[in-house]
């Protein structure tokens, strides 16, 4: 609910019938939008709906092919001049520089002999304001920080004054690598920032967060804004319906009808999994779950031996780093895990390869007209589906998943849950690290990690948000 | 992250110290003003060329034309700069500018630096040959004087090395523009996104590299008093090895100017050390390779514990 | 037609054809046969080492073999020394040259894998040792190849030089391996993103190992052929192949960043590199100018290829 004062003021950003065309694809199809000071605009929509394009048009990363973008409140000709800041989903820090030096990169005005001290003070102040008690050293090189800390630095740089106060901060999935407590700090700061007259565009697939911070929500679908109302007028179900998907139904379906077999995985830290079981790894982000899975996989699949029949496959969550082979087609990206199985005397059976890829395109619903298209022509969520297809196409009995739903929309998630349950019913074992409770509820058994070790093992009805949180935090407050 | 991994400068210093100690042990007479001067005599041009290579590696490229370009700069110094100082200086400035343009073109067209510099090495080498078809020329007197000056207490080569390290440290590590340049190596997109012109920065990095290469050529002529078109061909490999010995990495903008200078000193010393060993000439080159491998192995053993690379 | 233009290898072939036409036009068509013959002979050596270098470069950023010249010299020297101009020793000489290649490949990869050295540094440092070995074993002697071998390496079959047939056969094998085999897919996956490839089940170290062996073996073979072709091994016989091997890979349209390679392009580029020098020679360019023009042309082709890539 915007205040009447804000209504009167000129908008910070005004889009008029903005259009963006990439080849035959209409990524943005006539969007008109105004954002005023004091507003926190929640932006939702599934993958490929046009959220990123919209954001890039607002921050002048892209010039729209039609319509206009203006900044009436400041009258500035450019997004930078109008105080528009973006914090992107993929990290955009220089890992070889220190935290303070990264601020310098973002703040050109920082000059003179004493720039270093000024940069240090500014980033410290911003970090303290957004994430009190962050414990990040301004002189630490970024590549020595954890992913969550890097994201915190990035957000702090976004909110830092940098010579001219931030007017509009765009946060694209800002909490994806943050754990609950830190994410809450951010949400609090966003609310405070907007109350003080700033504006925020908040993109998140966690609807709870949207409801918590947004004063207004817009829903995008197929490059258009399909709903634009004050947040109070939406319900969770209404929002999901507007995005064009069935609401995720309640809690995870239990493994009741599945037969769980013998133990097939056991790691030194005590992680175990049995045949046909879906095992979750949970806890706060960055507490050793991803490392445990990577170690498990790398120890099993040799970098030297030819995998006659792979025992284990891996689904990456960090697509760019761990998953996608960017020069290749969708087809080759899918088949890379099954090459030995479709080869005779080292030579590939290409008909069989094409058949497998086509089959998976249909089964997992990869949105493309031809699997020969480059993988990079797909949206992030669809690339993720390719990685699922790669893993499931192989006959490996154990599937290891490292937070594989990052950037995947609600509808796809439901499909993938169903597929995982079906595969588990056939006797496959899944090890699934997730930061989201909804996903963890899909599991038969959950290991909660804390400080790199397992702090609890939960099964069946015990898998609740409460129990997981209990095991994630040290419960020994003074008093 | 252990101590050595965090302070990557320690190992280059230790390598140099160990090699120096071994040299002094083999040849105690080297432990004097003149001895040290002789040992590090040729280090100055190599250090300058290594800094140039480091500037290119810093922005995630590699320069395979260093040797040919330093040779050309040496030829210009020994001919044009000696005969017609003003014109010679203009030509050298033109060469620096050419490097800057090269950097801009490589970035603008997204060309592979390794190939462009490879092609340029033909061009530089050809120009050097046109300028000086047979060895000859002469060093301008002032360069000769500068390179052979005898400061009190510490030999010229050592003073120059310290000076080069200090200046480049200030330029690359401490200054704002140096930070931007390293940022290009670390994450060029981040720099571009916050409004920096990556093309201009890359041109600057290449231009600076050209400048240091020109200085290397001039210093070399000051030491050898004459030039030829192939005088510095081995500098390509030496400069790359120097950067790596100095703790620099090929990608990600992780470089150390001080380390690069120390790496260059180590390489120069290795050559002297081998001649003291009275090794059969057949094995001189091979032993250099072996030393290089040895030093890098040591670095690996000491920094490995920080986990997989 | 547009599909043909889009092929990255077409440029090196067009450039080679142009250089050929320009040279021949100077003499009014006389000597065309001889020129083609010479280009195929000399081009074959560049093509064979170029294909080795291409495999390594395909492994991804930072992967390159700078020990090719030293390996060629060492293999040529040791093989010719062992054969000692005696007839009937050609097979033994070949075996020695290939064994040298295997040994070098093993040593290179040991440095890269066990000591985790960047390949540029590892192969560079190791090449100094190989060079020393060659100097030590050769001692400046020039031993002639056995007569039969010399005849083979300078001879022709069906009007095409024998060495070109060898180069062609290797090209076919490399092409099939890259485009149609599991191993080729593994190689290209590794080159695009080694970590992702590893996590997709590719035995990346095995792939790298095999690749470094392959490039060294191809260099050894080339050293053997070149030494036989030119009537004996010389200590500097590999020298020009350092830049050459990298140049033909890139001019041939392979990606210098790895993950994508192009076999026909390497052959076209190898022919071009020879033809452009003979073109400049026949136009009477002095040595310096010849170098300048060669460099300019290499860069020109790289720019031409890249601007096409950007547009498409």
TrEMBL record, chain A:
Presence of the UniProt keyword Hydrolase in the record: yes
UniProt keyword terms in alphabetical order: ATP-binding, Hydrolase, Nucleotide-binding, Repeat, Sugar transport, Transport
Pfam families reported for this sequence: ABC_tran
GO terms, molecular function: ATP binding; ATP hydrolysis activity
Limits of the ABC transporter domain: 13-247, 246-476
InterPro entries: AAA+_ATPase, ABC_carbohydrate_import_ATPase, ABC_transporter-like_ATP-bd, ABC_transporter-like_CS, P-loop_NTPase
Enzyme class, spelled out: hydrolase
Keyword Mitochondrion: no
Listed EC numbers: 3.6.3.17
Protein name from the UniProt record: Wenxma_16, whole genome shotgun sequence
Automatic annotation (TrEMBL), chain B:
Pfam families listed in its UniProt record: BPD_transp_2
Transmembrane segments: 9-26, 38-57, 87-106, 113-133, 153-173, 203-225, 231-248, 260-279, 285-302
Subcellular location: Cell membrane
Membrane topology note: Multi-pass membrane protein
Protein name: Monosaccharide ABC transporter membrane protein, CUT2 family
Signal peptide positions on this chain: none
GO cellular-component term (any): plasma membrane
GO molecular function annotations of the record: transmembrane transporter activity
Taxonomic superkingdom: Bacteria
Keywords, comma-separated and alphabetical: Cell inner membrane, Cell membrane, Membrane, Transmembrane, Transmembrane helix, Transport
Species whose genome carries this gene: Wenxinia marina DSM 24838
InterPro entries (UniProt xref): ABC_transp_permease
TrEMBL record, chain C:
Record-linked Pfam families: BPD_transp_2
Protein name: Monosaccharide ABC transporter membrane protein, CUT2 family
PANTHER family registered for this protein in UniProt: ABC TRANSPORTER PERMEASE PROTEIN YPHD-RELATED-RELATED
Signal peptide start-end: none
Keyword Methyltransferase in annotation: no
GO CC terms: plasma membrane
Subcellular location: Cell membrane
UniProt topology in membrane: Multi-pass membrane protein
Single Gene Ontology MF annotation: transmembrane transporter activity
Residues annotated as transmembrane: 6-28, 35-60, 91-114, 120-137, 158-178, 209-229, 241-260, 266-284, 291-310
Keyword Cell membrane on entry: yes
Keywords for the protein's UniProt record, in alphabetical order: Cell membrane, Membrane, Transmembrane, Transmembrane helix
Organism: Wenxinia marina DSM 24838
């Amino acid at each position: 609910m915007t205040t009447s004062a804000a209504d009167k003021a000129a908008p910070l950003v005004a889009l008029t019938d903005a259009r963006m065309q990439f080849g035959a694809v209409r990524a943005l199809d006539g969007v008109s939008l105004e954002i005023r000071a004091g507003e926190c605009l929640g932006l939702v929509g599934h993958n490929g709906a046009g959220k990123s394009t919209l954001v890039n048009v607002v921050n002048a990363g892209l010039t729209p092919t039609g319509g206009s973008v203006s900044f009436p409140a400041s009258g500035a000709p450019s997004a930078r001049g109008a105080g528009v800041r973006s914090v992107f989903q993929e990290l955009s820090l220089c890992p070889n520089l220190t935290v303070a030096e990264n601020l310098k990169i973002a703040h050109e005005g920082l000059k003179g002999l004493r720039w270093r001290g000024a940069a240090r003070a500014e980033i410290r102040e911003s970090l303290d304001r957004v994430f009190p008690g962050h414990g990040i050293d301004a002189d630490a090189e970024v590549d020595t920080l954890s992913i969550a800390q890097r994201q915190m630095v990035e957000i702090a740089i976004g909110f830092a004054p940098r010579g001219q106060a931030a007017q509009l901060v765009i946060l694209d999935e800002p909490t994806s690598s943050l754990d609950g407590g830190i994410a809450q700090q951010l949400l609090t700061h966003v609310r405070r920032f907007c109350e003080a007259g700033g504006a925020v565009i908040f993109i998140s697939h966690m609807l709870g967060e949207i409801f918590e911070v947004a004063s207004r929500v817009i829903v995008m679908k197929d490059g258009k804004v399909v709903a634009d109302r004050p947040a109070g007028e939406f319900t969770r179900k209404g929002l999901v319906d507007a995005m064009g998907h069935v609401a995720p139904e309640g809690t995870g379906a239990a493994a009741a009808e599945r037969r769980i077999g013998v133990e097939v995985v056991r790691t030194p830290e005590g992680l175990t999994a049995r045949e046909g079981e879906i095992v979750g790894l949970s806890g706060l982000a960055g507490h050793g779950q991803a490392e445990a899975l990577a170690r498990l996989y790398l120890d099993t699949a040799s970098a030297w031996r030819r995998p006659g029949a792979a025992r284990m496959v891996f689904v990456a969550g960090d697509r760019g780093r761990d998953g996608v082979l960017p020069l290749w087609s969708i087809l080759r990206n899918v088949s890379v895990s099954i090459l030995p199985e479709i080869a005779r005397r080292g030579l590939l059976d290409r008909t069989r390869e094409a058949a497998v890829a086509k089959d998976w395109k249909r089964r997992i619903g990869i949105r493309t007209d031809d699997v020969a298209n480059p993988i990079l022509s797909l949206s992030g969520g669809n690339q993720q589906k390719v990685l699922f297809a790669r893993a499931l196409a192989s006959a490996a009995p154990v599937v290891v998943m490292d937070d594989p739903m990052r950037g995947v929309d609600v509808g796809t998630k439901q499909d993938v849950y169903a597929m995982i349950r079906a595969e588990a019913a056939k006797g496959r074992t899944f090890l699934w690290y997730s930061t989201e409770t909804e996903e963890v509820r899909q599991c038969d058994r959950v290991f909660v990690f804390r400080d790199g070790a397992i702090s609890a093992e939960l099964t069946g009805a015990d898998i609740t948000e409460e129990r997981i949180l209990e095991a994630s935090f040290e419960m020994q407050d003074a008093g | 992250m252990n101590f050595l991994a965090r302070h990557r400068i320690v190992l280059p210093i230790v390598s140099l110290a160990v090699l120096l100690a071994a040299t002094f042990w083999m040849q105690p007479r080297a432990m004097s003003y003149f001895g040290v001067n002789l040992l590090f005599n040729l280090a100055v041009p190599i250090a300058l060329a290594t800094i140039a290579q480091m500037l290119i590696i810093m922005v995630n490229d590699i320069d395979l034309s260093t040797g040919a370009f330093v040779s050309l700069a040496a030829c210009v110094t020994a001919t044009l700069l000696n005969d017609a100082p003003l014109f010679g200086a203009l030509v050298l400035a033109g060469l620096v500018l050419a490097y800057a343009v090269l950097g801009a073109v490589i970035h603008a067209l997204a060309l592979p630096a390794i190939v462009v510099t490879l092609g340029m090495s033909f061009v530089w080498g050809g120009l050097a040959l046109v300028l000086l078809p047979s060895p000859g020329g002469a060093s301008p007197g002032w360069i000769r004087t500068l390179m052979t000056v005898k400061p009190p207490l510490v030999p010229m080569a050592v003073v120059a090395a310290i000076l080069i390290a200090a200046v480049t440290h200030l330029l690359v590590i401490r200054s704002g523009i140096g930070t931007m340049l390293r940022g290009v190596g670390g994450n060029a997109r981040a720099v571009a996104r916050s409004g920096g012109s990556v093309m201009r920065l890359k041109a600057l990095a290449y231009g600076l590299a050209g400048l240091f290469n020109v200085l290397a050529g001039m210093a070399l002529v000051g030491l050898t008093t004459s030039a030829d078109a192939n005088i510095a061909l081995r500098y390509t490999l030496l400069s790359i090895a120097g950067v790596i010995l100095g703790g620099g990495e090929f990608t990600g903008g992780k470089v150390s100017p001080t380390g690069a200078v120390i790496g260059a000193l180590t390489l120069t010393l290795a050559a002297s050390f081998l001649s003291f060993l009275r090794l059969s000439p057949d094995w001189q080159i091979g032993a250099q390779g072996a030393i290089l491998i040895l030093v890098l192995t040591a670095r690996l053993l000491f920094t490995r514990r920080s986990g997989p690379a | 037609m547009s599909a043909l233009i889009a092929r990255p290898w077409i440029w090196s072939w067009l450039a080679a054809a142009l250089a050929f036409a320009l040279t021949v036009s100077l003499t009014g068509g006389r000597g065309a046969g001889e020129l083609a013959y010479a280009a195929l002979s000399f081009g074959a050596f560049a093509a064979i080492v170029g294909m080795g270098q291409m495999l390594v470069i395909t492994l991804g950023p930072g992967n390159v073999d700078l020990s090719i010249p030293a390996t060629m010299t060492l293999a040529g020297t040791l093989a010719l020394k062992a054969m000692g101009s005696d007839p009937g020793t050609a097979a033994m000489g070949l075996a020695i040259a290939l064994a040298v290649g295997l040994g070098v490949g093993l040593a290179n990869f040991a440095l890269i894998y066990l000591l985790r050295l960047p390949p540029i540094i590892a192969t560079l440092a190791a090449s100094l040792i190989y060079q020393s070995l060659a100097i030590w074993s050769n001692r400046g002697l020039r031993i002639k190849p056995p007569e039969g071998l010399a005849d083979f390496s300078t001879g022709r079959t069906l009007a095409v030089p024998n060495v070109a047939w060898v180069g062609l056969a290797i090209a076919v094998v490399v092409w099939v391996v890259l485009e149609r085999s599991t191993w080729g897919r593994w190689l290209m996956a590794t080159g695009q993103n080694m970590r992702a490839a590893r996590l997709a089940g590719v035995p990346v170290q095995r792939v790298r190992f095999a690749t470094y062996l392959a490039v060294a073996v191809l260099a050894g073979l080339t050293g053997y052929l070149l030494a036989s072709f030119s009537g004996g091994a010389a200590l500097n016989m590999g020298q020009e192949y350092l830049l050459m091997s990298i140049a033909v890979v890139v001019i041939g349209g392979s990606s210098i960043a790895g993950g994508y390679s192009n076999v026909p392009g390497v052959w076209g580029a190898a022919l071009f590199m020879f033809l452009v020098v003979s073109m400049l020679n026949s136009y009477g360019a002095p040595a310096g100018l010849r170098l300048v023009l060669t460099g300019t042309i290499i860069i020109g082709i790289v720019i031409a290829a890249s601007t096409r890539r950007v547009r498409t």
